[in-house]
Structures are given as structure tokens and as C-alpha cells.
Design goal:
- It is a single chain.
- The protein has 132 residues and is mostly helical.
- Helices cover 68% and strands 0% of the residues.
Length: 132
Amino acid sequence: MAALSKTQIAELSAQLKKARDTLLEEIRSELENAGESHRIDLLNSEPGDYGDEALADALADFSAVRIDRQVRELRDIDQAFRRIADGTYGICVDCGQEIGYPRLKAYPTAKRCIVCQEKHEKLFAGESHPRI
């Protein structure tokens, strides 16, 4: 398998930058809203009950989970940029083999080849992700 060309790296970098910009905007928007408007609307409605408060809390929790996912994606993108800068982008972190361009085009933050990713998922399937 041939190494990534400069054109392919430039294309993938542009894809990563676009995804990063989109994520940053989503995170900003989510943090600005942070579920508080829904909570206030629900708590101010008549008649208020514990169900309304529970729904408001669930909306706030959902917002926090979305932000957590977005922050993890942002970290993956930043790590991909670091790998591009140090020349290791497109090389599997586990086995050292090249990650194919089609895989990177579909998933530009990939840090493992398909074989190693499948092994990793089987090994760590039950683990939870750290929370912010």
C-alpha cells in the first residue's frame, strides 16, 4: 500500500478543519443554550409538577452528553492534526501499518487500521468514556 500523497493529506486536512469548525460552532451553541431555556420554560408552565422538573433535568443531561461527545470528537481531530504535523498520520498506532486512504476519507480521525480497530473494539467494548 502506498503512503498518502501530499494532495491526499491536504484534502484530509481540509476535511478535518471543516469538521473542527463545525464542532466548535456546535459546542458554542450548546453551551450558550445549555438546556436552561427548556428548563425555565418547563418550570414556569402551569401546573408545574415533578414530571416537568424531571424532564427539564433530562434535557440538561442530554445536553451535557452531547457536549461530551463533541469534545471527544474535537480531541480526536486535534490528535489527527498532531499526527499530520509529525508525519505519523495514516499509520496505525498499534501495528505500524498504513491506514488506507479510503478509510481515512470516510473517517479522517482514524488512528488504527481496520484489523487493529476491530481488535480494539472487542477488547474495550464495555469501557465507558471519561466525562468532562
